[in-house]
Amino acid sequence: MSAPVTTPQGTDPGRTVRTTATKAWVAALYSAVLAFLSSLLTAVGGAETGFGSVTDGQWLTAAVSALVAFGGAAGLTYYVPNAHR
């Protein structure tokens, strides 16, 4: 499914607003960072442990969660049209 480039807005069917990728990139970056840091926080687990205790599998889980969040947020956010002003 591809995102619409222009979509009808409001009650005037002839009025369209161009969809840009800027909000999609911002949402994707924020979601990816949040997912990555949340996964690492879970892996570290406490104040007395450090990043040296994080296993390769936990690093991989954090990276995969960041990629999934990035792709999902970018696609979903870009698909939603901008509101007209």
Task: Give the key terms.
mainly alpha, 2 strands, two-stranded antiparallel sheet, 2 helices, elongated, 55% helix, 85 residues
Q: What does this molecule look like?
A:
The structure is a single chain. The chain has 85 residues and is mostly helical. The chain has one domain (20-79). It has helices at residues 22-44, 56-79, and strands at residues 6-8, 16-18. Strands 1-2 form a two-stranded antiparallel sheet. A hairpin with a 7-residue loop joins strand 1 and strand 2. Helix 1 runs antiparallel to helix 2 (56-79). The radius of gyration is 18 Å and the shape is elongated. The two termini are 27 Å apart.
How would you summarize this macromolecular structure in one to three sentences?
The chain has 85 residues and is mainly α. It contains 2 helices and 2 strands; from the N terminus they run ββαα. It has helices at residues 22-44, 56-79, and strands at residues 6-8, 16-18.
Question: Care to count the β-strands?
Answer: 2
Helix vs. strand class: mainly alpha
Q: Quote the beta fraction.
A: 5-15%
Distance between the termini: 27 Å
Quickly count the helices.
2
Helix content: 55-70%
Estimate the global geometry from the Cα principal axes: elongated
Q: Within the largest sheet, what's the order of strands? A: 1-2
Order of helices and strands: EEHH
Q: Please mark out the parts with pLDDT under 50 across 5 or more consecutive residues, or reply none.
A: none
Radius of gyration: 18 Å
Mean pLDDT: 75
Number of domains: 1
For the biggest sheet, the summary is:
2 strands, antiparallel
